[in-house]
Design a protein that fits this description.
single chain, 151 residues, mainly alpha, 2 helices
């Protein structure tokens, strides 16, 4: 009896040449579309403006917190003025910064921070008070000696 060879051991003959196929174009790498690029650029600028606007709002809220805390401090310390309690400060302040996005001359962006000056208002008020005192002193006439009285 003749043995049959398993099919995986036999070779199947195929035509060696397939009909030639003409390829006109290779796969073109994706190119950014100009509309898409400009809309993404506009979106980036919008996000940058939003971050900077939120930073300004955050700074305003931080300064508002300081103002409210200062008012409460004054009220508490006025009410406890005659008691044995020492001066109370309900809020302590450390240096604070808010985010800031800057655009460079080459159109690139830098994400950085900007310091919030918590005590600028107090400095400006003290400076204005000093200027007003100096101005008031200049306006006051010096005491005159030996002034003659008219009849």
């Amino acid at each position: 009896m003749k043995q049959i060879e398993p099919s995986y051991k036999t070779t199947i003959s195929l035509p060696l040449m397939l009909p030639p196929v003409t390829v006109n174009k290779a796969i073109v790498p994706l190119q950014p579309q100009s509309d898409n690029m400009s809309s993404r650029w506009e979106h980036l600028i919008t996000v940058v403006q939003h971050i900077n606007q939120m930073a300004l709002e955050l700074e305003a809220k931080i300064l508002e917190l300081k103002t409210i805390a200062s008012t409460i401090n004054s009220q508490i310390n006025y009410l406890t003025e005659n008691s044995d309690r020492s001066y109370i400060n309900i809020c302590l302040y450390s240096p604070v910064s808010v985010p800031l996005v800057k655009q460079q001359p080459d159109q690139s962006f830098i994400l950085t921070t900007r310091k919030v000056d918590l005590f600028r208002a107090e400095r400006e008020a003290a400076q204005l008070a000093q200027q007003l005192r100096q101005h008031a002193q200049k306006k006051q006439p010096a005491p005159q000696q030996g002034k003659k009285m008219r009849n």
